[in-house]
Amino acid sequence: MIKPELLVTPTNLSDIDKLADAGADAVIIGEQRFGLRLAGEFNREAVKEAVEIAHKKNVKVYVAMNGVYHNEILDEIEDYIAFLRDANVDAIVFGDPAVLMSVRAIAPNMQLHWNTETTATNWFTCNYWGKRGSKRAVLARELSFEAVAEIKENAKVEIEVQVHGMTAMFQSKRSLVGNYFEYQGKNLEIVEQKKYEENMFLVDHERNNKYPIFEDQNGTHIMSPNDICIVNELEELVDAGIDSFKIDGVLKSSEYIIEVTKLYRQAIDLCVEDRGAYEEIKDELFDKIEAIQPINRPLDTGFFFKETVY
């Protein structure tokens, strides 16, 4: 039985060593200039240091280049890819075909993970990008267990699935929050250092939900009101042979991400090696995560148990 990779999103350099000790197999980092909704900002110097720290602990480093690119950034892509090649990162996560074409020319040995956030919903599309050089497909979050298993059964590339954390519900390249405040005659400056404003929500009184919202160089992002957590529901994904489980730590503290990583490491190991022991302890693991959940962030199973409608 394949033991899935445990992929985690660090918030800063000091997280990486701790996440390695907590059981992470890989981390995904980058900067908002090129990547979407990262847990932390890693400039070029930080990327080089991250690779050095991670590789000493046998942890892989993936760099996000899955932003929604407009023409003004295209000239920067090749230079950034050349930097990542020289920094010896393990893979680039991409969505825009411009990244694929540039990698072919500049770093032909670089591994690619295809991630367009929402459109990886069937095995045919995953294989399409696999034939063009992608080693892995990152599945959309709006899929059931049944759909994920079907994709994995027919895919000729690795499959990555998010198992924990919040998910994006909406993105606009426009600064919607800033424009709203400007319309009201107020000034809300969205700067890089404050891209994740605390306590900024859209409130739905009818559903009693609070949707975190933030702005950065990629525009406006509205996130899910709940966090996915399937630490006690891993059996189907493990049995299906999913290659990578992702813990998304966006808008979470370092301490939270590290503790959750420890609990998922225990869950994955037991689920693969001793299924009976996992069955006995899985609800306890869920309770431990629930006990450290931030206020207004209830846990659910996302779309995994939703009925697939054709």
UniProtKB/TrEMBL annotation:
Pfam family, one: Peptidase_U32
InterPro entries: Peptidase_U32, RNA/ubiquinone_mod_enzymes, rSAM_sf
Protein name in the entry: Peptidase U32
